[in-house]
Structures are given as structure tokens and as C-alpha cells.
Amino acid sequence: MIVLGAFAAMGVGVVLALLIAAGVYLMVQGLRMRRAAAEMVRAHAELEALLAAAPAQAVLVRAEGRLQVSPRVSEWLGWSSQPRSLSDLHAANWGLPADDGAALKRDVDAVLRASRPFERLVRTSDGARALRVIGERRGDAAVLWFADATASQDQVARSRTEAAELNEAFAALSGLIEAAPLPMWYRDADLQLAMVNSAYVGAVEAQDAAAVIARGIELVEGSGQGGPRGGAVAAKESGKPQQRVLPATIGGARRALRLYDVPLPVGGIAGFAIDIEELEQANAREKRFAEAQRAMLDRLSAGVVQFGRDRSLIFCNQPFRRMFAMRREWLSDRPEFDRVLERMREAGRVPEVRDFPGWKAERRGWFLNADGAAEENWHLPGGTHLRVVAQPLPDGGLLLIFEDRTEQVQLASARDTLLRVRTATFDNLFEALGVFAADGRLQLWNNRFRALWNFEEEFLAGHPRVDAIAERLAPQLANQARSALVPELVRYATAERKQRGGRVALADGRHFEFAAVPLPDGNALVTMLDISDSRRIEQALRDRNEALEAADRVKTAFVANMSYELRTPLTSISGFAEMLHGGYAGTLSGEAIAYVDAILDSVERLGVLIDDVLDLTQADSATLEREDVELGAVVRAAADALTASARRHRIEFVVEVLRSAGRVHVDRRRIREAVEHLLRHAIGATRSGGRVLLHVDGDSKRARIVVSDDGAGMTVEEAARAFDRFAQPGITPGQERALGLGLPLAKQFVEAHGGRVSLVSEPGQGSLVTVELPRR
User: Fold this and answer.
1) pTM surpassing 0.85?
2) Known Gene3D superfamilies for this protein (predicted)?
3) Alpha carbon distances (Å) from 654 to 651, 675, 708
4) 360 shares a domain with 393
5) Which of 364, 381, 404 is at the close of a domain?
């Protein structure tokens, strides 16, 4: 029993120990679980706080339609009480505007039925808040995340507005760049062309901007100053704008361009080019002009010196250095204005003044003279006169001009003396002289002018106009209307600078020759000379000339009548001689026949002389009857008329008419007579057994007749007067007349047709006469 009791006690102890151990264990686990629950509560609180502070708040929609809504969502949507089911929200249209509520309802239904997520931006009913809703399926429920997007939407709106403004500004800037008349471009980070404007495309003569960028066509060529991209490289490395001047060929012309490369903050290099060719040319012209101006100033007789704004000398010409004895070395140091005046005083080239510092201070005021140029006359020791002009310059400098007028002063004195001499000379001339100004007023006159027209000294002293003078002298003229000629002459001489003259008769019978001569100073000199005596002599000579012309007409008529009267006995002599030669009076001896031949020759020569005399008396009044004729036929007719005479004198007569002779528009009879005269002269000047040649040819403009012989020829003096109708005829060795009226008549007939005659002859070599006749 005891043993059993002991075992029982031990069992109870074991159970109690186990119960205690279990209690301890449970207590430990309870404490651990309590700590874990507290940790979970804390974590849950943190999560709730984090969720409450999160920008996105959740709305949980379970499958059966129950809702779990975040208080902030209710606040955002303006719900007065927490909704319990989805049907309540649908019925209230989610507290949103109709469109947004309907759209959100469809999206939630799509998530619950088709697990299709969505994202939508909605506005609250009052429009004050924008909410972004993102829906997705989580298990058997749908989670709707609501985020307040009001600030971001405002920022987006502002960004869109700014983007629109920037786009508009970019478009305007792009349009401005595109419309710019100067080439512009943009290079990317690799310095490759990324954009060019139309001016750039036109300058490189490309098709379009895309072609320029694709081919990398540069505006300038060559490797000077780093090549086309040298400025861009320098701008990228230095981060500062770069500029340089390079040549380029634009439109086939060589131009100078100033290139600008500007680094941009966003990367890349912008560039543009300005055509400075005209500026360069203008600078070159300005430089050449300045050089030419200084070269011209060096050639002036006046001294010129220029001072800068700091009153130092910057230029002086050679006459200035000579005038004031200035050494080039001293002037090269650019002395100041005061030092120059002092050096001029040392050379004795300034006026003598008591207060030289005060005088010098006054001259310094030339730099600030607001009234423009100042002018002074300096009377220097030794009788030198200088005219000084001080011209302030726009840049604050001063230009001084020194003109030596010593010679002009002397000339003015000499001019005064000459004026006195001229006045005395005018007053003692036989001619009447008057000098009128350009306005028609009388300026100078001599005593002869006043006495001729009986003008009072008081009237002339008032320098009357030429109209008043013409009115005063009209009653003294034989024809009073001629008084208007004086104003006209003065106007011609002063306004039109023309010289006119004429004659005028006075009422008392005197005659005056007048002339109006323009003077170099614009005035007019009117002169009148008494030509009454020469007028009377002229009339006497005119009467005598008319008497001589009447006597010449009587002489011409007498010669013509005598020529006709001489033909009657000459015809009888010729007829009887021909009858004797023909044997009508019986057979004649050889000696008698020779006498008869001599009579016939003399009759023929006498007939020719009579015809020549008639031609001379009638030639001046004769009228040409022109017609188109074959020149060869006319010449052959003349040759046929002289063939018998040539044969009788045993002379070889050759006629050559070429086809080029052609047709001429002439008086057939006069040209035939001219040729006959030339042939008759050639036959008469040729000995027996000689030769006479008649040659005719021509070209498109003129026809030519050549008559040559191998007779005795002429001396130079005889040839010179061969065509003179009043020259004494020469005598051949056979005592025959060598020169008569034939050559003068031939020349007269040819020249009447517009042709010309020339003669070439040498003693013992014969003569050659050439006639040229125009076709028309």
C-alpha cells in the first residue's frame, strides 16, 4: 500500500510537473503571441497611416457588390455618407458628372466581369478636382485606385500651353530663319550639318535642304582658317562665338563672307554668313579715296594740315611743309596744335601780335567752333598774304587750309590798273562799244557809244536795260522796227552764247556794222562801226560788176553769132575743095592734090575750133539730157568719127571696149563730144606712124575711159594748165597746135556728170588721159 501510495504520489507529481511545464509553455507562447499581435497592430497602424497618406486611395468592390471605401475618396467625391454597395454608387452616378459617372460604371463592370483593367481621368461634379482612377482585378474583388491629379493636370495644362507657345515660337523662328536673306545653318554635336535655310540652299545651288544635309555641302570651300568647319570647331572648344572672313563662290561670282559660329546651350553649333563683298569693296574704295585725296592734296598749291580730336597732327601735304619750313622728321612725331603754331612763329609765318599766348588760345577755339568754318587773312612780314580757313571736323578734329594769295593781291592791283587803262582805251576807240550783263543791263560804254545815239550821261549812269535803250534809239533808225534787233543780239550773246552780227541804217543816211560777242564772264559786248564810206564803195563796185556781167553777156552773144556767121563761108570752102579733090574741075597734079588736102585739113580744124567756141559759150547754160546708154556704143561712135582723120595722118588707132564698160546714166551727145575732144587732142599730138589707144572698162561703181598716145608729151607746166580754157596753146615740133579747147571742154562735160578727168604726161613719152564716170 505504501508502495502504491508512493507510486501514486510520484504520478501526481509528474502530472503536476507536466501541468506546470505546459502552463509555463503556454504562458511563454501567449507572451510571444501577444508581442506578435502588438507588432501586427503597430504594423497595421503604420500601413493604415501609410495608406491614408498615400496619393492613391483604394475602393474595394467585392464580387457580391459590397464596398470598402477610403474616407479620402469619399471626401474627394463629395459623398455625404459611406456607400455600402456598388448599386448605391451606380445609382448616385459615383457623385460625378453624367458622362464621367457612366464611363466609370462601364469600366468597373468590365473589371468585375472580364477582369479588364482600365485607367480613366474624371472630374468631380464641382469641377474643382481631377481624379485619376485605375481599376484592376484582385482575386474575386476589384480594386479601384483613386489619385488626386488636380495639380498634375494643372501642370500638364500649363505644360501644354507652354509647349504650344514654344511650338509657335519655334515655328516663327523657323519661318524667320527660312525667310532670312543670309545663309543660316545648324550643326549637331558631331559638327555635321543638320539644318539649313533656303538662302543657304540657293547659295550652294542645291536642289533642297535635304540634299544639302545628305551630301554635306559646305558654303565655303578650301582649307583656309581650318576649312569650312574651323569656326565651329573653335566655337565648340572655347564655348564662345567665333567669326572669320572667307571667300565663297555664289552665283558664279566670287564673294567675301563673314562667317559666325555660335555654340548653343543645348549642344550643337548655329551659324550664319553675311555677304561683306560690297562692304569690303566700299572699304577698299574708301581707302583708295583717302589715298587719292591725300595724293591730290599733295598736288594742291594750298597748304593743308589736319589735326585729330586729341589736337595732334595726323596729316599735312607738301605745300604746307614748304610754306612753313617744316621738316618731315619733326612732323612724323605728330606734334600738337600749339607746338605747330609755335614752330610757325619761329619760321616767321604767323602775323606779328603782342600777346601771342592769347592769340594762340583764340586759335584753339577753332576746334570747338559751332558756327562752321572760320576764315582769316594773315599779313606776314615780307609782304606775304595768306588766306586761312579753319574747318572743324565731325570727329572733333580740325582741318586748316593755307592759301598763298600774295600773287592774287598783286594781280588785283594790276587788274585795277588794267581796268583804268581799259576805260581810257574804250573812250578813245573809233568803234561804239557797250557791255551788257546777263540780265540785259548796260554795264560799260565808251564815249563813241554815247555820242552815236545822243544818250545823256545821266541815262547811261542808271545802267538801263537793253529794252529801254532800244526804245530810245528807234527814232534814229531808217527802219524803226530794226530796234528790236539789239535786245535779240544781247540775248543770243548772253543766254545762248552765240555771236551774231549785221548792219543797220540810220535815218541820216549813215550805215553801221554791228556785232554781239559773248564774253567769258557771261556778259555780251556790242560793237558798232561806221561803214558808210565802205558801203558807198561797195555799191560802186556792185554797179561796176553788173556792167561787166552785161558786157560779158554781149561778148558771148557776139561770139556765138560770129561762129554761126563763119560757118557759111567755111562750108563753101569745104565744098569747093572736096569738088577739086574729087576731080570735078579736071585731073589735078600730085602737088595740087596735096594743096587741096591741106585746105581740107585746115577747114576741118577751123570747124572744130568754131564748134569748141560755141560749146564754151553755151556750156554754162546747157542742160544735160541724161539717159541709160551703152558706154561702149557711145565710145565707138566717137572713135568712128575720128578714124578717117587718124588714117589720113597715118596713125595707128586702136579701140578696146571691155564688157565691164556696161551702162551709164549720161547725156549721150556730151559724153561722145568729150571722147572726140580727147581723141582729137591725142591724134593732133601724135606724129605720123604713131599710135593712139582708146580703152574702156569699169566696175560696179564707175566706168573708165582711157585715151593714150605716144606723141611728144608735155612738160609739167603744160600738163598743169592743159585743162585751162584761157591758157596759151603749145606748138608741136611740126608747128601744129598741141593744146586747144578740146581738153577743157572734155573736162567740163565730164565734171558736169559728176565724173573726173586726170592727165599724166612726160616729154617724149606721150600722154594718158583717164576719165571716170559714176554709174548713177
Assistant:
1) no
2) 1.10.287.130, Histidine kinase-like ATPase, C-terminal domain (3.30.565.10), PAS domain (3.30.450.20)
3) 10, 14, 10
4) yes
5) 404
| Burial degree of 232 (CB within 10 A; 0-12, 13-18, 19+) | buried
**283 lies in a domain?**
no
Q: CA distances (Å), 408 to each of 386, 387, 405, 414, in order?
A: 10, 11, 5, 9
Strands 524-530 and 432-436: antiparallel
Percent helix, strand and coil across the chain, each to the nearest 5: 50, 25, 25
CATH of the domain at 588: 1.10.287
89 SS3 class: helix
- Region 644-656 average pLDDT: 88
- Dihedral sign from CA coordinates of 518, 520, 525, 529: negative
Question: Quick check: is 239 in a domain?
Answer: yes
Q: Which helix (H) or strand (E) holds 748?
A: helix 742-752
Q: What is the DSSP letter of 238?
A: H
Least Cα distance to 470 among 458, 445, 488 occurs for: 488
Structure confidence at residue 408 (pLDDT)? 81
Residues 524 and 655 in one domain: no
- Are residues 596 and 509 located together in one domain of the fold? no
> Is residue 692 a contact partner of residue 651, using CB atoms and an 8 Å limit?
yes
Domain with 420 in it: what CATH number?
3.30.450.20
Q: Are residues 691 and 756 in the same domain?
A: yes
Of 179, 405, 231, residue with least CA distance to 301: 405
- Report d(CA 438, CA 662) in Å as an integer: 65
Q: Which residues have CB under 8 Å from 443's CB, separation 6+?
A: 435, 436, 437, 463, 523
DSSP secondary structure, 136-157, as one string: EEETTEEEEEEEE-HHHHHHHH
Under 8 Å between Cβ of 595 and 551: no
CB 551 within 8 A of CB 543: no
Over the stretch 37-96, which tens digit does the pLDDT of each residue have?
777 777 766 666 665 566 777 777 876 777 777 777 777 777 766 777 767 666 666 767
Q: What are the residues whose beta carbons fall under 8 Å from the beta carbon of 395, sequence distance 6 or more?
A: 308, 309
Residue of 699, 636, 634 lying closest to 667 (CA atoms): 634
| C-alpha 17: how far from chain center | 134
The answer to whether the CB of 220 falls within 8 A of the CB of 228 is yes
Crossing angle for the helix pair 485-494 and 466-473, nearest 10 degrees?
Answer: 150
Our count of domains for the chain comes to 7
DSSP labels for 503-547? Answer: EEEBTTS-EEEEEEEE-TTS-EEEEEEE-HHHHHHHHHHHHHHHH
Indicate whether 707 and 721 sit together in one domain: yes
Query: Does residue 560 share a domain with residue 508?
Result: no
Which of these, 373, 514, 544, lies nearest to 453 by C-alpha position?
514
The Cα–Cα gap between 691 and 767 comes to 11
The C-alpha cell of 137 is what? Answer: 482585378
For 663, the 3-state DSSP assignment is strand
Of the candidates 612, 632, 767, 649, the one whose C-alpha atom is nearest the C-alpha of residue 697 is 632
Summarize pLDDT for 326-379 with one digit per residue, the tens. Answer: 888 888 888 999 999 888 888 888 888 888 888 988 888 888 887 778 888 888
HEC profile for 361-407?
Answer: HHHHHHHHCCCCCEEEEEEECCCEEEEEEEEECCCCCEEEEEEECHH
Note whether residue 128 is domain-resident. Answer: yes
Neighbours of 464 (CB within 10 A): 17
Tell me if 10 is assigned to some domain.
yes
Supply the range of the domain harboring residue 394: 299-404
Residues 504, 517 within the same domain: yes
Domain boundary among the residues 382, 404, 426 is at 404
Are 62 and 205 in the same domain? no
Mean pLDDT calculated for residue range 234-262: 84
Secondary structure (DSSP) of 602-668: HHHHHHHHHHHHHHHHHTTT----EEEEEHHHHHHHHHHHHHHHHHHTT-EEEEEE-GGG-EEEEEH
**For residue 379, what are the β-bridge partners?**
385
pLDDT digits (tens, 9 = 90+) for 551-598: 766 666 666 666 666 667 767 777 777 777 777 767 777 777 777 777
